[in-house]
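A quick word before the example. In earlier lectures we treated sequence and structure as two separate objects. From today on, think of them as two lines of the same record. Here is UDP-glucuronate decarboxylase written that way.
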Amino acid sequence: MASNGNSHVSTKPPPEPSPLRKAKFFQANMRILVTGGAGFIGSHLVDKLMQNEKNEVIVVDNYFTGSKDNLKQWIGHPRFELIRHDVTEPLLIEVDQIYHLACPASPIFYKYNPVKTIKTNVIGTLNMLGLAKRTGARILLTSTSEVYGDPLMHPQDETYWGNVNPIGVRSCYDEGKRVAETLMFDYHRQHGIEIRIARIFNTYGPRMNIDDGRVVSNFIAQAIRDEPLTVQLPGTQTRSFCYVSDMVDGLMRLMDGDNTGPINIGNPGEFTMLELAENVKELINPEVKIMTVENTPDDPRQRKPDITKAKELLGWEPKVKLRDGLPLMEEDFRGRLGISRKK
Ligand SMILES: NC(=O)c1ccc[n+]([C@@H]2O[C@H](COP(=O)([O-])OP(=O)(O)OC[C@H]3O[C@@H](n4cnc5c(N)ncnc54)[C@H](O)[C@@H]3O)[C@@H](O)[C@H]2O)c1
Ligand SMILES: O=c1ccn([C@@H]2O[C@H](COP(=O)(O)OP(=O)(O)O[C@H]3OC[C@@H](O)[C@H](O)[C@H]3O)[C@@H](O)[C@H]2O)c(=O)[nH]1
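And the structure line, produced from the sequence above:
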């Protein structure tokens, strides 16, 4: 049984996978479920999984923040299936692996209906664990750096238990993901389910919703539209930004490896929001103004992953630097906004 190097090991044998997996003459494809697969990270993950001809990919999504458009190249493909479904309802299908991403990720969206966000994280994760238990599938949860809250340890490694406000406006997401992690380990210990937990740090790239509200998409859309970049106060708060192709590579290594996690997956390059704005200005629109605006409650003041574990256990580290990733995202945003670069 997989271990993450500490005492989280299950005493139960994992549930039996589908008999098809053991069939001698039936060359079954790997049936991979991606919940939230119509979203930003999910759709990039689907692209990568579909490159392997031995994979069948099933996406389940309620389209709250995702869109069919992100998957248009796969609709109608014989190895691809798209199901409109809310993970807060049980799902009865046959699968071998589950990448469980379904959950709004941008603070403005997860705060929009906090009760629904909690339900998605708790009931949605319970349903997907139930599915994993019935089918014997391995399940990977995309948890978050937000489990560390406003961290008092810097950089954050996986042993840090976090500094989270349990009753704040971000709690539906932070605490929701913390409960989701607990459920994953309880199912692992109690039922032997094969689990993987990724703690994802801020990820950016093409296909983010233009009105997503997260900082990189906001700044790029603002720079392209020649609107001031809105740096929320104080502007000295930090984040570490991982390009989406690196993220997908890390998630797949975690799924296919032997370690339960939790494992941080993120880019350790750390930037203040003012530095990010300066970079966007320089690379995308040197004329654009930078303005400061009010922040929202409980905004974490610093965030930077310690990725020692990902390097050692997954052989993973990010390859794309922020200054290389931003122009790739600019190109995608310009195409969708229909605004080309000034000569
Ligand atoms: N992008 C990041 O920086 C980041 C950081 C940490 C963790 N994560 C996690 O990664 C996952 C994907 O994030 P993303 O950036 O792609 O976000 P996203 O909002 O683009 O994608 C989330 C997807 O889940 C779907 N969804 C939401 N609630 C659902 C429900 N109840 N049932 C079915 N589908 C539902 C949405 O419609 C969307 O397609 C999320 O679990 C998020 O918490 C992302
Ligand atoms: O227009 C903006 C938007 C945001 N910000 C600032 O940028 C920083 C990052 O904010 P974002 O909204 O992009 O995202 P956060 O880092 O707060 O949360 C993020 O990280 C962890 C993930 O799990 C979440 O899904 C993700 O949204 C914050 O300090 C925020 O105050 C701005 O300065 N201007």
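Notice the following. The chain is about 35% helix and 15% strand. We will return to this example when we discuss secondary structure assignment.
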